[in-house]
Amino acid sequence: MASVPLALPHRQTSRRKIGTQVALYLALVMIALVILTPLVWVLLTSFKTNFAAINDPTNPLPLPFTTDAYSTLLGSSEQPIFRWFLNSLVAATLQTVLVLVTASLGAYALARLEFVGKRIVFGCIVGTLFVPPVILLIPNYLIVQNLGWLDTIWAITVPHAAGAFGIFFLRQFFVNLPVALEEAARIDGAGEFRIFLQIVLPLSRPALATLAVLTFLANWNDFLWPLYVLLSPENLTLQPGLSILQGAYGSTYYPVIMAGAVIAAVPVLVIFTVAQRQVVESVANAGLKG
Question: What sign has the CA pseudo-torsion 24, 26, 27, 33?
Answer without folding.
Answer: positive
